[in-house]
Task: inverse folding
């Protein structure tokens, strides 16, 4: 170790010290300030980037909350529209059923009236035919009974006897 420190020279030491102090002075004057400015600028840039990232994160959270709110509103509106459509469909079905029932009842009433009319017409026709047949039968019977003189006299006497009793 003595070899390392054995040849100590005071002039060399002073010269190196002066050079070192000069180097520090030059660095301080020309390089230290720009380096510190660059480091400070970099630090400010990082702080700004972190603030921007934090603001972006908050804004993203707000956007997500807004999106969720809008999505919930859209779902509620969709549910309302579906409910309204269901109610409208049920009302239309009920109205159609009511109209069909009313139309059916009207048709049944008309059919009953038509049947009743046909029945009355048929009864009147049947009565007319029965009376016509009865008259024809009575006419034929009377012609047969009144074909001889003796039967005519008996019938007249019988009718006169019936007429006196009444």
Result:
């Amino acid at each position: 170790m003595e070899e390392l420190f054995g040849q100590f020279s005071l002039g060399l030491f002073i010269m190196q010290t002066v050079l070192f102090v000069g180097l520090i002075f030059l660095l301080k004057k020309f390089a230290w300030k720009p380096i510190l400015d660059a480091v400070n600028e970099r630090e400010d840039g990082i702080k700004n980037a972190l603030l921007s990232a934090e603001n972006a994160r908050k804004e993203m959270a707000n956007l997500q909350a807004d999106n969720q709110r809008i999505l919930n509103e859209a779902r509620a509106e969709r549910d309302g529209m579906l409910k309204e459509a269901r109610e409208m469909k049920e009302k239309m079905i009920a109205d159609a059923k009511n109209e069909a029932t009313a139309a059916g009842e009207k048709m049944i009433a008309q059919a009953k009236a038509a049947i009743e009319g046909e029945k009355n017409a048929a009864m009147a026709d049947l009565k007319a035919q029965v009376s016509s047949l009865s008259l024809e039968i009575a006419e034929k019977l009377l012609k047969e009974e009144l074909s001889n003189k003796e039967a005519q006299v008996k019938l007249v006497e019988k009718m006169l006897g019936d007429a006196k009793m009444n």
In short: Helices lie at 2-6, 10-145, 149-165.
